[in-house]
UniProtKB/TrEMBL annotation:
InterPro entries: Peptide/Ni-bd, SBP_5, SBP_5_dom, TAT_signal. It comes from the Bacteria. It holds the Pfam family SBP_bac_5. This is ABC transporter substrate-binding protein. Coiled coil: none annotated. PANTHER family: PERIPLASMIC BINDING COMPONENT OF ABC TRANSPORTER (PTHR30290). Residues 94-433 form the Solute-binding protein family domain.
Length: 535
């Protein structure tokens, strides 16, 4: 194992993460691959080698796969890097990537993987077992974001021979198979060098996957080309890609619409523009998944330490109006922390259907009168559209509400600095990492984790009981018993309402079917073009 690294700070998390907001904008200081590249219309003319992509998220967060939750970066890294095992971006079915085969027995307490012969890094050097050990050493480091997805079940990764590694588990954990895609294998000779992880954070990317990065310009664009040395299972059909980072919704739509359209595909399409784009001949499809708006309470501030107050504010929200007006019908009221399409979904025992009378009675039972709430929020466009409904709903039950939408980095920097807050509304989508309930819930509910520290709740007896129940579910080998325990702790999370979704939404992707084929819309931010072709 390498020498200990500095602890992963809350400020670092938000610097490296784009999950919360399409509008997060913390500039990096270097361009990884030279000067600015063209973001113009090369892809809109006769150059069929190039696909221009519009991503509605910033490309200036961390590019270190073990540290990032950035929508842009994670989508790009899935084209650049490989895990031992990767998953289909839509079905999430696992397949052997850098490994030659999937384990025969996923209930075993150790899995052996032989590496794909002839696999090379984008600089031409061979992929080795030492690179795998180096990468898992990084993933298991508690200072990394990825560690929360591995340390509960993975004991160690060791070398078997010059071409084989063995993953040793603390207990049988079949759900580890799709989760291995999070552990992107990285070259030790590049990122193990002095300053290597800083370079990764700032945009240096050297993988073994289908595409290599050829230019990176923070707040502007990132360019890729097919790697000629790639010999893996998903060979690219597109020769070059230029991904434009355009957070502004109107500018993003302009790039893919009209006679002067420069892009062939865009993610994060605003609901208000769907019909317009379809009339112009574009295909617009959605993916329903975890993407949600959540409320998070500071339980160190009264009266938000009282569960009845938290519940009251959820019951008071007219979610149907929010979905009809703000989301144009592309949303579902949360009936569990998980979305209804998740394999582990079950309706929670506590569901916050619109019930203003119940909200008033809960506030009265808690002895709360004349409550004033400042709702801080990220300034993501669809979140901002939802805020008036919340304010009107809370005002209607006698809770005077002030709205404070603001830049994501500014908002969470205040919380990093322990500045006071009451309630926060933000967006999140743990499906970027995977689908299993254990992974999704541990993203938010981990003792000592970022989110629990923000809520000031994780040292409470209720939180400790929740964490113990989650650990019990993780270790349970029987599938049905595990599912029952999972539903039990999801019920606890729903009842406590410390950090909980209001609505789950549908993410929309648009593309030109006359120029692209093989595209599949995904239910989490970004795009996948590993099986697409330029027509």
């Amino acid at each position: 194992m390498s020498a200990p690294r500095p602890a992963f700070s809350r400020r670092d998390f938000l610097r490296y993460s784009g999950t919360l907001s399409a509008a997060a904008a913390i500039s990096t200081t270097i361009s990884a691959c030279g000067g600015p590249a063209s973001t113009g219309s090369a892809g809109s003319g006769g150059n069929k080698d190039l696909v221009t992509v519009v991503i509605g998220y910033g490309n200036d967060q961390s590019w270190d796969p073990s540290m990032t939750a950035s929508a842009f970066t994670m989508a790009a890294n899935n084209h650049i890097y490989e895990g031992l095992v990767d998953t289909d971006p839509i079905t999430r079915a696992p397949y052997a990537a850098l490994a030659t085969a999937l384990p025969a027995d996923t209930s075993a307490t150790s899995w052996k993987f032989a590496l794909r012969q002839g696999a090379t890094w984008h600089d031409g050097k061979p992929v080795t077992v030492e690179d795998v050990l180096f990468s898992f050493d990084r993933v298991m480091d508690p200072s990394t974001l990825a560690s929360s997805f591995f340390t509960s079940w993975l004991k160690e990764v060791r070398k078997v021979d010059d071409n084989t590694v063995e993953l040793v588990f603390k207990f049988p954990f079949p759900d580890a198979l799709p989760r291995l895609t999070i552990a992107k294998i990285m070259p030790k000779h590049v990122f193990g060098a002095p300053g290597g992880w800083d370079a990764a954070k700032n945009g240096k990317a050297v993988g073994s996957g289908p595409y290599k990065m050829t230019a990176h310009n923070p707040k502007s664009n990132t360019e890729f080309e097919a790697y000629s040395g790639y010999n893996g299972p998903r060979r690219p059909a597109i020769k070059k890609m230029n991904w434009l980072s355009i957070v502004d919704a109107s500018a993003r739509v302009a790039k893919i619409s009209g006679g002067s359209a420069e892009a062939q595909i865009a993610d994060n399409v605003p609901y208000a523009n769907i019909d317009q784009l379809r009339k112009q001949g574009l295909t617009v499809e959605g993916g329903k998944g975890m993407n949600h708006m959540f409320l998070m309470f500071n339980t160190a501030q009264k009266p938000f330490d009282d569960v009845r107050v938290r519940q009251a504010l959820f019951y008071a929200i007219d979610t149907k109006k929010m979905i009809d007006v703000a989301l144009k019908g592309h949303g579902t009221p949360a009936s569990s922390f998980l979305n209804q399409q998740n394999p582990a979904y079950a309706r929670a025992k506590t569901v916050y259907d619109y019930n203003p009378d119940k909200a008033k009675s809960l506030l009265a039972a808690a002895g709360v009168k004349n409550l004033s709430v400042t709702l801080m929020a990220v300034n993501v466009s669809w979140i901002s559209d939802c805020l008036p409904t919340i304010a009107n709903s809370w005002n209607a039950i006698g809770v005077k509400t002030s709205l404070q939408p603001q830049d994501t980095s500014a908002l969470f920097t205040k919380m990093d600095q322990s500045q006071s807050y009451q309630v926060v509304a933000a967006a999140s989508n743990p499906n970027q990492f995977g689908l299993d309930a254990d992974l999704i819930l541990r993203y938010n509910f981990t003792s000592g984790g970022t989110w629990m520290k923000y809520t000031k709740w994780d040292k409470s007896s209720d939180a400790k009981a929740l964490f113990a129940l989650m650990d019990k579910a993780t270790r349970e080998p029987d599938k049905q018993k595990k599912l029952a325990l999972t539903h039990q702790y999801i019920d606890v999370i729903a009842e406590q309402a410390v950090l909980y979704p209001v609505v789950h939404t549908e993410l929309m992707t648009a593309w030109d079917p006359k120029k692209l084929t093989g595209v599949r819309a995904q239910a989490y931010p970004g795009v996948t073009l590993l099986q697409a072709k330029r027509i």
